[in-house]
Amino acid sequence: MKAVQIAEYGGPSVLQVVDVGWPSVHDGKVFVEVHAASLNPFDTMVREGHLKDAIPLQLPVTLGGDIAGVVVEVGTGVTNVSVGDKVYGQANVVAGNSGAFAEFTVTAASQVAAMPDNLDFEQAASLPLVGVSALQALTRHIDLAAGQKICINGGAGGIGAVAVQLAKHIGAYVAATATGDDIDFVKQLGADEVIDYKQQHFADILQNYDAFFDTVGGDDFGRAYSILHQDGVAVSMVAEPDEAEARQRGVVALRQSTAVTTNMLGQLAKLVEDDVVTTHVGKVFPLVQAQEAFQARESGSVSGKVVLAIKS
Ligand SMILES: NC(=O)c1ccc[n+]([C@@H]2O[C@H](COP(=O)([O-])OP(=O)(O)OC[C@H]3O[C@@H](n4cnc5c(N)ncnc54)[C@H](OP(=O)(O)O)[C@@H]3O)[C@@H](O)[C@H]2O)c1
């Protein structure tokens, strides 16, 4: 079968489409025919070797996390999905799976669920990591409630776009950051107020907010504490909190580590089926053009998720 692998760390040119052996199914795992997979910033970090000390990998490995496809075989003890089910979820090698960017993958049953029945495979593959990240932040860490005010930094990104829709569904007042054509896109998603981050800094404008959700990192996360009231919550997907500063200001600050689980994927699927969350696929490439797909994502030229179509 064909897979997109790296045998060394580096830029998009290290991505090779190669023929590899079939992965084998073990207890608690599912064998999935991958119809589509999507790219995330994490895949670039793995490819570039940023995680090689924290998570040593035996190269070559198949890249990729997000998948949508059809279950072909289930290992012993698997009860949440069956052969023939259309599923979506994660199949990352860093979590001990066989990798997403391949014609077939073996992944933990606990990292897949039935995909939303109103999406095609390409749309479903665009959602697992970004959708669960937004859902986990807003419902588990921030516990956002109707009438509260939240600022979402990076409202047009994969995670930010889902977070804006979820926050509006919960009934919050939503300010978000974006620039250029993305400003209208984020307004269409439901944001009450969009701040052009190239013109103004949110910390100079917003006050007395209940929550801040950061998908950008850098200095923005530290500056966010100043827009929160006492006991406000700041969650970043990227930056570590400044504990001392947070304590001094009386706010809660944390960096989230997303856990893509059957339970969270199931909640996300329901939100998609209820038309609360839509996904925005920006560009689709065939598997053999994985290098071009990564270049497109990393150049910032594509608005929306970049997807690999694997089975036509
Ligand atoms: N901790 C975890 O478990 C975890 C899980 C998933 C993702 N992440 C991380 O979360 C981050 C976001 O992921 P993603 O998939 O949403 O990425 P993404 O789709 O690339 O979105 C990032 C967004 O940030 C915007 N942006 C860049 N600089 C900005 C600024 N100064 N102010 C406001 N917005 C700005 C970008 O807009 P432009 O197009 O204008 O640049 C883009 O829309 C990544 O760093 C990823 O690695 C962490």
Describe the structure.
With 312 residues, the protein is an alpha/beta fold. It folds into two domains: 2-127 and 280-309, Quinone Oxidoreductase, Chain A, domain 1 (Alpha-Beta Complex), CATH 3.90.180.10; 130-255, Rossmann fold, CATH 3.40.50. 27% of the residues lie in helices and 29% in strands. Strands 3, 5, 6, 7, 8, 15 and 16 form a seven-stranded mixed beta sheet that branches. Strand 10, helix 5 (182-189) and strand 11 form a beta-alpha-beta unit. Helix 3 (128-141) packs across helix 4 (158-170). It starts with a strand and ends with a strand. The structure holds NADP nicotinamide-adenine-dinucleotide phosphate (NAP). NADP nicotinamide-adenine-dinucleotide phosphate binds next to helix 1, helix 3 and helix 4.
Can you tag this structure with a few keywords?
Rossmann fold, binds NADP nicotinamide-adenine-dinucleotide phosphate, alpha/beta, Quinone Oxidoreductase, Chain A, domain 1, 2 domains, 312 residues, six-stranded parallel β-sheet
Large-scale geometry: globular
Helical fraction equals 25-40%
Whole-number count of domains: 2
Largest sheet: 7 strands, mixed
Question: At CATH's second level, what is the architecture of the largest domain?
Answer: Alpha-Beta Complex
CATH superfamily of the largest domain: Medium-chain alcohol dehydrogenases, catalytic domain
CATH first level of the largest domain: which class?
A: Alpha Beta
Provide the residue-averaged pLDDT.
Answer: 97
SSE pattern, N- to C-terminal: EEEHEEEEEHHEHEHEEHEHEHEHE
Taking the alpha carbons of the first and last residues, their distance comes to: 15 Å
Low-confidence sequence ranges:
none
According to CATH, what is the topology of the largest domain?
Quinone Oxidoreductase, Chain A, domain 1
Ions, cofactors, ligands: which are bound? NADP nicotinamide-adenine-dinucleotide phosphate
Our estimate of the beta-strand percent is 25-35%
Give the structural class. Answer: alpha/beta
Give the count of helical stretches. Answer: 9
Count of distinct strands = 16
Radius of gyration: 19 Å
